[in-house]
Specification:
about 90 residues; mainly alpha; about 65% helix; about 0% strand; flat
């Protein structure tokens, strides 16, 4: 009997983490995860259903998303001069 493997986002992240052998691989994994979390947070912040939460919630949520991206850039060693849109 042949088994087919179903690849989900979680399983691909688990495979990426399990294949990390050096600290550079761990840094790469953490940068990818920080960017993913930032993208999910950005989608959550811009969701119209959250418009009733108020200004203070919005500022806190934006700061959280910005920190995810900042951490990813820090791990990858990127500066403002490295990016055209910065």
């Amino acid at each position: 009997m042949q088994h087919s493997r179903i690849y989900t986002e979680q399983s691909t992240r688990d495979l990426r983490w399990a294949s990390a052998r050096t600290l550079a691989h761990c840094d790469q994994y953490m940068a990818i995860e920080a960017q993913r979390a930032g993208a999910i947070g950005f989608a959550h912040v811009t969701n119209p259903a959250n418009s009733f939460r108020g200004y203070r919630w919005f500022v806190g949520a934006q700061a959280c998303v910005a920190e995810h991206y900042h951490y990813a850039r820090e791990v990858m060693g990127l500066t403002d001069e490295d990016q055209l849109y910065a």
